[in-house]
Each structure stands twice: as structure tokens, then as C-alpha cells.
Design brief:
With 576 residues, the chain is α/β, with parallel strands linked by helices. 44% of the residues lie in helices and 13% in strands. The protein has an 8-stranded mixed β-sheet. An 8-stranded parallel barrel has the order 9-10-11-12-13-14-15-16, surrounded by 5 helices. The longest helix is centred in the N-terminal third of the chain and has 24 residues, at 53-76. The model is unreliable at 1-15 (pLDDT under 50).
Amino acid sequence: MAQTEPVQNPASGPDPEGPLRGIAAGPGAAVAPVARMADPPALPAQEPVVDDPAAEEGAALAALDEVGAELDTRAADVEGEAAAVLSTLALMARDPDLRRQIGELARGGRPAAWAVHTACGRYQELLLAAGGYLAERAADLADIRDRAVAVLLGLPMPGLPDPGHPYVLVARDLAPADTVRLDPAKVKAIVTRLGGPTSHTVILARSLGLPAVVGCSGAEHLVDGATVAVDGDAGTVEVDPDAEIVERIQGRAERRRILLAESGGPGRTADGVPIALLLNAGEGDSDEAGAHDSEGIGLLRTEFLFLDRAEPPTVAEQTEAYTRLFRAFAGRVVTVRTLDAGSDKPLEFAPTGEEANPALGVRGFRTSKLHPRLLTDQLTAISAAEHAAAADGASARVRVMAPMVSTPAEAGEFAELARSAGITEAGVMVEVPAAALLADRLLRRVDFVSIGTNDLAQYTMGADRTLESLPELLDPWQPSLLHLLAKVGRAGETLGRPVGVCGEAAADPLLAVVLVGLGATSLSMASPALPAVRYVLSRHSHAECRRLAELALAADDPERARKVVREAAHPEALRL
């Protein structure tokens, strides 16, 4: 089943007298010719008659195994976000329920390729109906389907174009497995017809530092070789731009390259107020991650240790992985998010039961109610790793935080568990409005909080993160979302507790300044975003950050908030 086309809306529709418009997904700008992704492999018009259903079942499952193995191989060659995404895809290719459905179709007389295509389509419908995180994975499942069908039909695997010159990659949608293979020396920007602000494609594009516009109405009409100017900050695509636009975009790109090359060191406002600039990190080479010019890790995703397993990792296995990372970040902070799993990210060894809406169900810290040993073992391993690294004189400053905490009682319960395990700094994530509204009470129970803006936006606006038709509601510049962030920031300032932001919002340089004005003391993001955030922050005093935040809070909509802040920002900050 193909992913449904987004409903047209004024915010993202094409303007016949202006540029194409979509969702601003990756900062920066570029001008280059279009190169389109090839269409996915199609089934032949005539479905063949099956003589040996068992052989068809075996072939279908073998194709899924081959796809999973290929994704695992690619995951081993990359780090951070890319490795985590590919590992998740490999896990989807091995999903027992998907394989069961394929087997039933094959045994019922469907050829292997048709069984895979049909079962994946049915599974996509279930994911889209579930909403939330699961619906976001529907596009990922389409990639698995296309790869398995290509294997079964002996067709070329879906892949990237290679026109022999730098280009803007245009696609209906872009699979994560292809996104991680992008070479920024060849691909200057990404434009997709589908995609939302928190899709895997967007996250990976930002991790590569590529300008990107997704959910772009009209992208399907862009032809190979046509020159386009892509503005990943404004979310626009100008077709056949005139010489003035080309010169402006190219000049801006060169200024950005020079300015960011000179940006380094700790995060500071213009008057010297420290704002820790941290990494969002997952699976990967810990030494390579430690080499980035950051002050540590603001969000360490630990799911990679638990995925694709029949049994949970032992305390010893976890201790070894954490110890390597703590040594790589010696002298810097590492904030470990405990396992964020549940019905929206199911684990074979931690069932949570059937749920009508997994996004509102048992996930994150709530999972520990059903499987308490998962959390206690993880906290034991983190503490042991910190002590092992410290014994060598090379440990990070380790903090832990629990995801999906809603009440002060939950915050206090987690803090007690962490401290009982020997971990001195315990915090929680603010991802639901209930936690933001009682932030002062949460902060009396824990040492810090970190705001996950992606989930907080979804739950605040009542808008599914997967709906391309509602991108404006998920815009992190939404004043209602900013008011919740301000409430958390004020609570942190009153109680003298750190408040971090680790959602995608922190990677927007201008919004980062607003977040600091709202009370954020640290910002966590993908590594390519660090230099731009560091540069823009250094051009504003802390008082100016507060003034810009007040302007954003007073706006009625995200477009107005973005406009008034840009107009009032320091001119040097706009040179990017």
C-alpha cells in the first residue's frame, strides 16, 4: 500500500506566482539541478500460478532475512542517528507478526513477491490507524517491502541517482536506508513530496547537515535537470531561479560555511552566560561521537541495546557498552535516557498487551510498572559503568532521565530508584503537558528536566506527528507550545535546577535563542547543528534572548512568532 497523499492546505500548497512550499526540515540553502529517485519496483501485471506454496513461503521469508542483514551491515558502517534508524528498520524486517502474515498468504497460494507486497500493505494500514510513532513507521515499512520485492523479482535494489554532478535529490518519499547513504559532496539538498517534521528522513537529513524541504506540494512535477533553489530554513523551493536568487543563495551558503568553520568551543551568550551545547546520540562509534566539538551528550538513546533480541541484554553487556561511551566523554556530561519502549516500540521480551492507541499507552517509564527489572538492571549497569570508567580516571559526569513521566509522584519514584542504584543525578523528560504544568513540583523531586519538544508538540496540539496535512500545528514555534516551555523554564530558574531541550527544536538556531530566553540552560541536537546554534547564540546577550522570547510568546501563530523574532534578532545572526 502506498502512503496516502497529504491533504492540501494553504501552509504547504504551491503558489502559482511563487516558490513551492513545504516543511522546513533541514537548515541551509543550495542551488543545483534536480535528480529524481527512481520509482520503486512494481509487481508484474499478471500474477503467476503457484505450484509449491511452501517454496514461495521460504523464498519470501528468505528475502526479508536478506533485507534485514543488509540493513544491519549498513548500520554497522555508520553511527549515531543513522545507526539507530537502520537497526530499527532491520528489526521491522524480522517482525514475527509481519512474517506470519506473509507465510499465511504464501501458503494460501500467493506468489512470494505478492505475499510480501500484500502483507506489508495490510501492516501499513494498521500502523497508520494506530497513529503516533507507529504511523511514522509506515513509510519505513514501504522501504522494506520494496527491497524484499526487488530481491524476489531479481530487480535492482532501490537506490540513489548518480547523474555525475552535484544535485538536489527529489523523491516522492525518501527511505531512511537511502538517506544515510547520501554524500553531501554530491547531494546538495533534499526535496520530498511526502514526509512530516519528525520523520526519519528529516532527522537523518539534519544529522548530515543537508538543507531539506519535505511535504512539498508540487515536488512531483519537478523534472530531472531543472535548476532549483532550496531554502531549508524557509521551507521553499524556487524553480528556475533568476540570477539574483542564485547569487543570493550561493553567497549565503558560502558565508554559512565560513562562519560555521570559525564557530567552536563552549556555548555562551554574548555576555558570557553559559549554555551547554550537547549531542543527541544513539548507537555508534563512541570515540567518533566523543570527537565532536560538544560539551557532552544531552540525550543518549539506549534502545539500540534492546532491539532485535529475544532476551534483554544482561547487566554485564550494558555495563560494557556504557563504559566505552563514558570514557570517550571523560570530563563531559552524558545524559542517559532510560529505555523508551512499550506498545509504540514493542520488544519481544517486554509485552505490554493490546492497546487501541499506543501513543497514549504503556511506554517509557510506564513500562517499568509491568517489567520493573528492565529498569533496575539498566540503572545498575549505568552505575557500574560510571564507577568502572572513574576507576581509570576517565569518566563522564553521568546523569539519567526517564521518558514519559507525567506526575510528580512518578518523578520521585524514578529519582529514588536511580539514587538507590548509586547514580547521583536523576531527572525526567517533559513530553506531556501534565509534566510541564506541574514542572515546579517535578523539579522538587529531581535534579533536572529535559524537554522533548517533538512529543510535547503532538500532545499539546492534539495533532498526530504523522499527518503531513497539519504541519503548522506541529511547528515548534507554536506560541502555545512556547508558553509551556516558559512555564518549565521559570520553574527551573526559581528552584535553581537545570532545564534542557533535546527535541528537534533545539537545532533551529533562531529558535534556540528563544529557548534560552524561556529558561533553557542546555540545548541538545545532532552534531551538524552545533556550529550554527553556537554562532547565533553568541550574537545575543541573555537579556536579548529574553526579549526575543517575549516577542515569540506574544505572537498569535508560529509564522508571526518566527517573523517578529527574525526582525528583532541581531543582524549578524541572520547572515547564516
